[in-house]
Amino acid sequence: MTDISSISSDCTKAHARAAWCHDVLNSAPDRFDAGRQIARRLGALVEGGRVEFGFWTPELLDWRIADGDVFLEILRPRDGIDLTATAADVCFDRTLLPVARAEAFTFAAASGLRLGDRETVGDFYALVWRDHDGALHRILDPLAASLPYGAFAPAEIYDLPAMQARRQDTGYFEQVRGDAPHKFAPPTSILQVHVPTATPGGTLAALTRQFERLGVRVAAGLPLEPDDELFAGYDAVQLLPVEPTTVYEAGPDFWTHTGEDEGQVTAHLLRPDTTNWGYDIVISGMATVNPVLLETARPDELVDLAAVLHNFPRHPKMLVLDVVFGHADNQGLHALNSHFFAGPNMYGQNLDYRNPFVRAILLELQRRKVDFGADGVRIDGAQDFKWWDASVQDMRHDDAYLQEMSDLVQNVGGVDYRPWFVFEDGRPWPQEDWELSSDYRAVIKNQQGTDPDVFQWGPLTFAHNTPFIYTFWLSKYWRIKEILEHGANWISGTANHDTLRRGTQVSPKLNINTRLGDTKMEILDKAYDNPAVSILTYAALPGVPMDFLNATARASWGFIRNQDDKYGVKVVSEEAISLKWQVDEYAYSIPGAFRFLKELGFETREDLARFLEFLPALVEVTDYDLHTIATLLNAVEPKLAGPHPVTVGALKQIARAWMDDMHEYCNVSHSTSKLDPVQTNAMRRLRMFRLHNPWLRHNLRADDHFRYVEPIDGRTVLVSLRNAPDGGEVFTICHMEGGETGEIDPLDLLPDGVSRNDWYLAIRSPGIGTDYLGGPITLRDSMGLVFTRGLDVTHLAGEPH
Predict the structure, then answer these.
(1) pLDDT tens digit sequence for 150-164
(2) CA–CA gap between residue 618 and residue 572 (Å, rounded)
(3) Dihedrals phi, psi of 657, to nearest 5 degrees
(4) Backbone φ, ψ for residue 352 (5° rounding)
(5) Pfam families this protein is in (predicted)?
């Protein structure tokens, strides 16, 4: 049994905080400056034995709610609670505490509260207000530090100072302590990771164990297996967003009230189990971690991962967080007050960046999230940060806000620092000619005066790249030339979460490069894990290369989220073509694979493929009328596999099964037994080469050379000569696509006047035997070679990393 009588309201402190807030609002230079000061005091802040609470509540002013009808609600589980349980019916003791208000801000303070930590579940809280009928309505905390039941449930009071005090990487930050905030520099390469599909466990804790094991093996000089090598050689790890995402549109909710009176609340609780690629966020809860990603339901797991990466032997790894503040899913309307929003967009809702308090709160959410210990930040969809300029009746890019994001100072272990920043910005996207007109440099141009290391995603890294279509590389040569000149501040590479997803949506009827493989699956796999492309990216082009784990593991990937009810069937119709690219008969037949679809009657891949041939066409011709779609599917002869008769409910059930099955199918663990050790080893060696030659990040100099071999003769072969600033050279030859070269001596392709003597073959792609050390060779599609002269390459002689 719990004793809630220990909770004591500190009205003096709450009123003092409200008075301070009034003073800030009156005396700050402007409302945005006031908002930034006040935002630091919002949420549930643990300070010694007391907890202070702060909320931005303009809706209480809109609705004319009196001070006496607003309370801080504290909920303490009467008999304890297991946050990892799949389901539970829990009785909470409820305490309502008085608040103090200052304009649109509401404050409370109390002692005797139970604080959450790694071992203890804390009290839950929300703000509540009473209507004319005496009913209580909740206002949730968007700045919560722990949300075990997601962004649409009461938050847990969490002891962040204690969590930070326990972290094991304070030495990593201590070494960069200075009089001014330290600015982290770019890494040499990045591994992009989707946590739920990266390991069998699918959690941050499981990913941490993966890197712990790798670190032990590296420190001991043990050999690395292929699945180890997938994670090795990078000096940065970028996680797809780890914020709380949308919930099931049609339920069930993860926190459902089942009864209440003045002193207690009963609720049916479900452990969050949605599947999502990470970008369907509701803004509320952005300061903490999606509970779906937490094995223990404790946000400490993100700190643990940061520490393991920062303490990695030989070459510490940076942690880069991907944050999404350019939009909110429509579900965000149910988590935040209306003042956060500026109207609908293609993703859901625009945020009102011009509201000074919204602007301040968004920046505070970012600051708190990065304080988990990230030393790099990637901003998703920076071209979407816009505001409506009524004077010209047009949307304007909010570059000042992007600068404010970059200027935030973080603090971990008492050390102030500024992270390395990367922006995804393809403006003028979504303008129709964006692929031609975007220079991918808008943010770099705006911010390079204050930060020479600000980065953007480069033109071969943005969404619509299809390196498995013939002439792709020759048609993109104009972009490659831009990379040579401007690429030092670009993320490079063609395999990321977006490009791989777009690749699976391409019609197989296009001019596909069949030299990449014998099947569509082989073609797609090799296109996004291509040795020649990797050699080009890591040994020739400037910038910071990035690989997506699912691509290098040759695992599947797609648009995977199972929350949709209204548009779930439409989403599956758009993803249906990925069946042709990613799933063959054998993969579908494996026991345990696609179990939900099989249970619905799609026993073979052929059954499912036939259904998915009809569905997209009917979605289009009926303008997504589910009742008509179901009627027409029932009329197909011979009958389709699956539920009979087809109803709207059955269509939604099929869509949910597709998403759940594909999410499981995309898990990297299913591909590790099929990895080619020659491929994984060659790619790791290539990353080690880049790590030991960081000068390759910079733009090509006047004495460097880059060209495609002429005449074309049915192939695209790229050659590059890079000169190291302290002496030494790197020469690469990459067969990007097309027919064989015939027998050539690669060194004959060196520029005129460059000696052919004393070159060392440092890296050869898979498909070229280890007995080849130089001289005549016939190169085929996806082959590549790296020669060096005057450089130390002993790090390639088998050193594990």
Answers:
(1) 999 999 999 999 999
(2) 12
(3) -65, -40
(4) -90, 80
(5) GHL5
